[in-house]
Amino acid sequence: MSTRRTTATPSLSFRPRWRRPLHLLHRWAGVVLAPFFVMWFASGIVLAYVKFPRLTRPERLAAAPALDFSTAKLSPARAAATLRAGEFRLRGTPTGNLALPAPADPAAPVRPRAVRLTQVQGRPAYVFTAGMAQPVVVFADDGSRPGPATPERAVSAAHAFAGGGAPRYLETLQSDQWSVGFELNEHRPLLRVAMGDGAGTEYYVSSVTGEVVRDTRRRERLLNWLGSVPHWIYPHFLRKHPAAWEWVVDILAVAGVVVVLAGIAVGFLRLRRRAARPRTARQCVARWHYFAGLAFGAVALTWVFSGWMSMNPRGFSPFVFPSPTEMFLFSGGPLDLSRFSSVPELPENTVEASLLCYAKQPLVLASSRDGLDSLLPATLGTDPVLPTADAILARVRELMPGVPLAGAAVLTGYDNHYYTRHPEEAAQPLPVVRARFADGKNTWFHIDVKTGRLLDKSTAGSRVFRHLYRGLHSFDWWWLWSRRPLWDIAIVGGSLGGLALSLAGLALALRHLRRTLHLQPFSSPPQTPPPQTPTQ
Predict the structure, then answer these.
(1) Is the dihedral of CA 287, 292, 297, 298 positive or negative?
(2) Domain segments of the chain as ranges
(3) pLDDT tens across 365-381, in order?
(4) Buried b (16+ CB within 10 A) or exposed e, 484-507
């Protein structure tokens, strides 16, 4: 009987050596990061419609007291002459007010960079800002300083701001969960006041100016615990330390990019494999995770990557800022208070005002309660030359002398590079002049037609970064945002798809962790009979 020898045919399939490490990387990284992805996608839906608490300009103007400078005796120039360098000595931070380097001569005069007109304790006052220090308030009637706000002043300010109610002082704090942002640094410490109304309203009052600078309500605070706080990794104990917070977000974002890339690679490796019909719950979840990854893996990748870009890692973004020469082209130079030799005359409905210059002329930018702005002469009996679109267009070449002007136009509406998602807040004024230069960086400028102020400067690199961050993360493309509800469908649909992908990944990660750690459901340990003693 003869035997037939068979020779095994080598498999033609190729299995790269890096395939198993790739699977292990995706699996173990998913164990750690799956909860974060679930949190980010779920909170992102809330964050798209609920903003972090802040006091908007319309809210501030609607409740601000009317400016009354009829009793003012000091002009801006005379009030500024009383300032000394030693008064601008503190810089506010969420953890405490820090002392700035002592000036060589504390009694030296100060040239403020900004001046605002306000009412403090029912009296006219100037708010002077210089450098990085907290501002200094000077009463316009006698030149005195009001001093830090007291609890009684905070309660009075909250009562006037709300137009009634029963305010109650709660505490004085450096920062908390709803006041940790850098935009309140010049007002720290803050005095928190509860209004005792049904909405659970609380006001934060500046210790420097005595004004209400932030408001929150119970519903807003609750929704932000489901939105901005988890989405931005924003708990107060971490966010009040900016450097530590940035490190945590950077590490999580980079790890997130790696795990999504690994998942996409694993998915493509399995494209040709014909999967058997799932018979167990685990197989159903794995199948759902696979198909959800194919459909929404790119969305997860772009969102976690653009979230990382929001931190501008290692100065990746080529942020550019106007030079002093560019900033002062239309104003004629830094704010020169010697030109403001008289008390500004304000319309009766003015609730907010600031000093500025255009073509070396002293002007007052006055805002009414309904948000309308107007430029007024700061000197009585004068007829100033106000900015116009034609006058600005005629001078834009001076922004970059010797560089060809690629184009200049007046924008009366928003587009992808000059926009705001909340036009009602007037954060980005219209109309503006856009000047484009044909230099190596394709530099653009935007100038406010109403005030002649240079609003921003950008290059081709910074505009690309704008798409990598806001474009990919918030879908802040004006063609999409201006066609709502298309924007809502894209944001909510992408978030729900990413959430489904993340929930399936979390279920698989928990199962893998349980198997690895040999965790079993609780049960009584088996009873082991005692060893038998051998008989003699």
Answers:
(1) positive
(2) 53-216, 324-458
(3) 999 998 889 898 887 67
(4) eeebeeebeebbebbbbbbbbbbb
